[in-house]
Amino acid sequence: MAALVALAQKAWSARQLLLLVLVPLVLLPLVFALPPKEGRCLFVVLVMAVYWCTEALPLAVTALLPIVLFPFLGILPSNQVCSQYFLDTNFLFLSGLVMASAIEEWNLHRRIALKVLILVGVQPTRLILGMMVTTAFLSMWLSNTASTAMMLPIASAILKSLFGQKELQKDPGRQGEENAAAVRRNGLHTVPTEMQFLASTEGGHAEESEVQLDLPADSMEEEEKEYHKNVWKGFLISIPYSASIGGTATLTGTAPNLILLGQLKSFFPQCDVVNFGSWFIFAFPLMLLFLLVGWLWISFLYVGISFRGWRKKKSELRADAENKARALIQEEFQNLGPTKFAEQAVFILFCAFAVLLFSRDPKFIPGWASFFTPGFISDAVTGVTIVIILFFFPSQKPSFKWWFDFKAPTTKTEPLLSWKKAQETVPWNIILLLGGGFAMAKGCEESGLSSWIGGQLHPLEHVPPVLAVLLITIVISFFTEFASNTATIIIFLPILAELAIRLRVHPLYLMIPGTVGCSYAFMLPVSTPPNSIAFASGHLLVKDMVLLFKWWSHQKHPSQKYPEECWIRNLCSAV
Predict the structure, then answer these.
(1) Residues facing residue 415 across a β-bridge
(2) For the chain, first and last CA: distance in Å?
(3) What pLDDT band is residue 169 in, cutting at 50, 70 and 90?
(4) What sign results for the dihedral spanned by CA atoms 537, 539, 542, 548?
(5) What share of the chain is helix, strand, coil (3-state, %, to 5)?
(6) Can you tell me the distance from the alpha carbon of 435 to that of 105, in angstroms, rounded to the nearest whole number?
(7) What's the pLDDT score for residue 545?
(8) 251: enclosing H helix or E strand
(9) How far is CA 83 from CA 26, 79, 434, 438, in A?
(10) Which residue has the higher pLDDT, 478 or 417?
(11) Are 496 and 518 a contacting pair, CB within 8 Å?
(12) What pLDDT does residue 178 have?
């Protein structure tokens, strides 16, 4: 028995190597069971799908397999495969990542976040709304992971100031193991707890924010403790969820959106209805709707939303407490200092980036691209043009007197963004992952595998399109809870394209629900890196993230029964 246990442990420790060897051997019969070219392409697609889902290889390395396997297996020549890794869609995404690096370099995103929190107020529900709106807006332009990692320390600092430094009860050993496992599966570094977050915020202002409650721990009611615990969880959950929702509003917000654009051009070259502006007009209202629903649901479950309380006139005690609590956030905002010239320049370039992308070809009216040769100007041209300016525009306000002052120092002017900084902050692996998806789609098209898959979907021709959309969304949303969003959509989009042909519906009718549904991976810590970052704080359990099953615990400990005076008393104690 001991020998079997030891053997199982060795097999588990070498599971990645075993997967790398066994998966191709198990799938090898497909090469001989299907028509030659289609079988070989399906073999490559399934091997990549298994490697992506199990992470037997890093995701970006798996994306490079078509460069090796397609030429060797006679599916595509190498020049056609390699060109898929640098399509204009990839450069559009790259321009968005570089712009995000410039925003992060000058702390513009933090200034925006704190300003929004000042405006929304300090009630729990309003603070959660402010957090979600800010995170969603940032994730439209930054990566979802970066938005979450930036907002969580701010949320932790606010909660520490309002509730004091008393840690919530938790099982450090068990949760520590769960957190580490979740983070490792997403390839992230372990994220510190709130205390470490607070200590690292703004160069170490943790001691200033460590405010103890005047009330002793023994006198705090059990219901009030539960209320504090629920507010913590509501804050921590709202940030990664709003990051995933906000990323769907723009083409550059998340990788699945760009994969849809690239594969749509590959399978349907004449379909030229999706660009940055048209996608924003379609997706932004939906993002606002889902953000509102998410805020109401999280507030209802964890905070206890009450519209009657909003209509009541504020008492003098409550108004004074809220004003003083708002001053805590105002202090963090003032610590940023006055707006720098570099921040203003980055903000102006960011606005130009967005406006030019929106107005290039909005479809319902002629855009500015109509003044140039048709088909020559794409979103990638617009994005790269603005990004190039970042590398030479000065970060200090230029002075004409400097040219005539011969005694002035001849120091080199630093640009808004250096190439070294861009190399460090841009996630280049995502570019390779996009290219791998486009190469896979190209191989499916050229080998005839797409047509073969379409033939196998013949029994689904009589399925009502509405039912097909529902089934597709459910399947993809479930699948993406356990696999990378990018890998999931790469696998499913070719199938959806062929299914649309069989059902005789517009391809976007199936491909858009699948793409958007792929980004809504909310249930598990391993679903997305933002979920893992929030889970690694140590205050969340898996059951807290599965909101569909939160109703029972909400009935057991309803947040609405906690008196409003508890919140006011804690505000007064904090300040």
Answers:
(1) 394
(2) 62
(3) very low
(4) negative
(5) 75, 0, 25
(6) 27
(7) 62
(8) none
(9) 31, 6, 12, 10
(10) 417
(11) no
(12) 43
